[in-house]
Known about the structure:
- The protein is an alpha/beta fold.
- The chain has one domain: 3-Layer(aba) Sandwich (Rossmann fold), CATH 3.40.50.
- Helices cover 39% and strands 14% of the residues.
- The chain has six helices and seven strands, in the order βαβαβαβαβαβαβ.
- A seven-stranded parallel sheet has the order 3-2-1-4-5-6-7, sandwiched between helices.
- Strand 5, helix 5 and strand 6 form a beta-alpha-beta unit.
- The two termini are 30 Å apart.
- The mean pLDDT is 91.
Amino acid sequence: MRILITGANRGLGLALSQIGAExxxxxxxxxxxxxxxxxxxTQSEMNKSILLLPLDVTDEDSVSSAAHIVKENFxxxxxxxxxxxxxxxxxxQVEDLDFDQVKVTFDVNLFGPMRVVKHFLPLFMMxxxxxxxxxxxxxxxMSNAYGGDYAYASSKTALNxxxxxxxxxxxxxxxxxxxxxxxxxxxxxxxERAPGNPIETAKGIFxxxxxxxxxxxxxxxxxxxxxxMPL
Length: 231
């Protein structure tokens, strides 16, 4: 399968690129800055099945240009993994929020996936395993709200809603749509205390993409192991 991954330069995005390539998929690794991010991808034993693609999810012209590059060179894609994300204003009380940072959070975590879907959906190969994966978080679960991380949690709740709306829109086009909680994993965002491993999460996500997990059609918000998450 031909798979677009945003934020592919580090953390979970890098792990997804590695595992996808190992499993024989063609990876279109979206990175914001090719010069700064090429090194990390190279050091992670990237091979010919991975194409570095300049893609800044906050810039619609960049997203449109990336879609044009893919269309001209490949014609179609099978999967989008909207992985690019930020966690800003952590541990800030609501009285202390910097709304410029809140806007950045929504621009990356919500509007970014929406831009990518807008421009790449017309390129979809309508196969049995076509998927759109939005990397979400249990922080976006309203029933599990813990009070805090206002910008991040709210952006992920909105992303879950977008996922549900999109699922309804593409259901008849034979495209699976999921918002996936990746677990608390050791990345720049998750920190060193996180118990999870991004490689294991990436393997679980690819099991879902490859149809190795049975998932109830009613479940759109799920864990990387395919279990339902409360909205």
